[in-house]
Automatic annotation (TrEMBL), chain A:
It comes from Texcoconibacillus texcoconensis. One of its GO terms (cellular component) is plasma membrane. Keywords: Cell membrane, Electron transport, Heme, Iron, Membrane, Metal-binding, Transmembrane, Transmembrane helix, Transport. This is Menaquinol:cytochrome c reductase cytochrome b subunit. It is a multi-pass membrane protein. The main subunits of the menaquinol:cytochrome c complex are a Rieske-type iron-sulfur protein (QcrA), a cytochrome b (QcrB) and a cytochrome c (QcrC). Component of the menaquinol:cytochrome c reductase complex. Residues 5-223 form the Cytochrome b/b6 N-terminal region profile domain. GO terms for biological process: respiratory electron transport chain.
Automatic annotation (TrEMBL), chain B:
Gene3D superfamilies: Cytochrome Bc1 Complex, Chain C (1.20.810.10), Cytochrome c-like domain (1.10.760.10). Heme c binds at residues 194, 197-198. The keyword Thylakoid does not apply. GO terms for molecular function: electron transfer activity; heme binding; iron ion binding; oxidoreductase activity. The main subunits of the menaquinol:cytochrome c complex are a Rieske-type iron-sulfur protein (QcrA), a cytochrome b (QcrB) and a cytochrome c (QcrC). GO terms for cellular component: membrane. It comes from the Bacteria. The keyword Ribosomal protein does not apply. The chain crosses the membrane at residues 46-65, 102-124, 136-154. Component of the menaquinol:cytochrome c reductase complex. This is Menaquinol:cytochrome c reductase cytochrome c subunit. Residues 27-154 form the Cytochrome b/b6 C-terminal region profile domain. Belongs to the cytochrome b family.
């Protein structure tokens, strides 16, 4: 049955070459923990991606309840946390997942660095990776404000003060992020938009580039 | 790829009519014990993923995500704290030569150099050598950076007053329904000093508790306002004795017209 559906689509769209491109890639011995236990360090990248997927899915569920305005944001998070079935788990996954992404990404960065895998011909993939590092820190910063509780509010005030202290572009950056002089209604709306649309969009684009390059070049060889 | 004459297409589309075989590549001649990612390796890897996911779910069940009370921008006494992965940057800005007049150094120069070097690592270290021991400068700098991040995070956690932090953010059960049309409330609102510590809703800030917290009677409240209590100074009330009494009755009656 599945085969029939596949053949039907394949006849019309010729998906076999595309599918083989995606499915065919080798796992060399030196990165396979089944052969060398120490190769578990090569799992960090995959686990980072796995947690990113968890973040995207749990985040999608959070937006089913979350209301991004200063009157209702806190109430909606409170409701989600205390009333909604499994709400506390979904929010917990998104909360702890954020930390986990950072940890895994940090470990992955260290693995790539200490195996010298950023060297020619993989320079571009390293740069894309570091850009994703920044995007994810940005996601962490903007997401922290969204529950609109005390720690969220004051951490953002401090964060924006730091951004403001940057010479030349500081004032502009602060106004751009805060949407005005104070951290308030505009700021929440902007952080929400950045957290939910701009940065995830950038992240998906960069992830695509990251995976395309690794597939094209193959993983770096044994040391 | 087939070219030239004799190509057949599906209908009037650009899809070739000839089907290509859907068979995996053969890795048997690759060096070492190479195996195919799909499906061989993935079938093993999803088990690692499953273990990881279970551990993760246990964490979320054991420790629900924290939520403090709703943001109150007027509460200037709140000690702010970013999420833990920004603590090292936050801590850096507390040191003398990275704060105050030197904020630019702590906020821009040091992180800028560190992250800039990270971004440009492939061009800063162009030698072909990949082993970490054979490129001591790069490895040394990275180790230094990692140790500094861990140290700064540690210092920041150590510096922070976690008890005060937990208390200042606590969700207070607000079951007082302050009658804002009462005379006592008007008198309270005219007292800037009280508002500074107890908030304009009388429900407290980080400098003082809700005024209704304990069950004092009118005389005790008048005494507290005259004499002060704990870290609350006395003699802050600005008005006549009658007004003070009205206010005290209002407070003793948990925010309702007595």
């Amino acid at each position: 049955m599945l085969q029939k559906i596949y053949d039907w689509v394949d006849e019309r769209l010729d998906i076999t070459p595309m599918w083989r491109d995606i499915a065919d890639h080798e796992v060399p011995e030196h990165v396979n923990p089944a052969h060398h236990f120490s190769a578990f360090v090569y799992c960090f990248g995959g686990l980072t991606f796995f947690t990113v997927v968890i973040q995207i899915l749990s985040g999608m569920f959070l937006t089913m309840y979350y209301v991004p305005d200063i009157i209702n944001a806190y109430e909606s998070v409170y409701y989600l946390q205390n009333e909604v079935t499994f709400g506390v788990i979904v929010r917990g996954m998104h909360h702890w997942g954020a930390s986990l992404v950072i940890v895994m990404m940090f470990l992955h960065t260290l693995r790539v660095f200490f195996t010298g895998s950023y060297k020619k011909p993989r320079e571009l993939n390293w740069v894309v990776g570091v850009l994703m590092f920044f995007v994810i820190l940005g996601l962490g910063f903007t997401g922290y404000l969204l529950p609109w509780d005390m720690k969220a509010y004051f951490a953002t005030v401090v964060g924006l003060e730091i951004a403001e202290s940057v010479p030349v572009v500081g004032d502009f950056t602060k106004t751009l992020l805060a949407g005005g002089e104070i951290v308030g209604a505009q700021t929440l709306a902007r952080f929400f938009a950045i957290h939910v649309f701009f940065l995830p969009g950038a992240l998906l684009g960069l992830l695509g580039a990251h995976f395309y390059m690794i597939r094209k070049q193959g993983i770096s060889g044994p040391l | 790829m087939q070219r030239g004459k004799g190509m057949k297409f599906v209908g009037d589309s650009r899809i070739p009519a000839e089907r290509k075989p859907n068979i995996p590549k053969d890795y048997s001649e690759y060096p070492g014990k190479t195996e195919a990612f799909w499906p061989n390796f993935l079938l093993k890897e999803w088990m690692i993923g499953a273990v990881f996911l279970i551990g993760f779910l246990c964490l979320t069940i054991a420790h629900p995500a924290p939520l403090e009370r709703v943001a109150d921008p007027t509460d200037s006494g709140y000690i702010p704290l970013p999420d833990w992965y920004f603590l090292f940057l936050y801590q850096l800005l507390k040191y003398e030569y990275a704060a105050g007049d030197f904020t630019v150094i702590g906020a821009v120069v040091i992180p800028g150099i560190a992250f800039g070097a990270l971004l440009l690592a492939p061009w800063l270290d162009r030698g072909p050598e990949r082993r970490p021991m054979k490129r001591p400068i790069g490895s040394g700098l990275m180790l230094l950076a990692v140790v500094s991040i861990i140290f700064l995070t540690w210092e920041s956690v150590d510096d922070h007053d976690w008890e005060a932090a937990a208390q200042q953010g606590e969700i207070v059960d607000v079951d007082y329904d302050v009658d804002e049309s009462a005379e006592g409330y008007d008198i309270y609102l005219s007292q800037d000093s009280c508002i500074g510590c107890h908030g304009d809703d009388m429900l407290g800030t980080s400098a003082g508790p809700p005024v209704f917290e304990s069950d004092y009677d009118v005389d005790e409240i008048i005494e507290i306002i005259h004499e002060g209590i704990g870290s609350m100074p006395g003699d802050q009330f600005d008005g006549s004795e009658e007004e003070l009494e009205t206010l005290a009755e209002f407070i003793a009656n948990d925010g309702q017209e007595p």
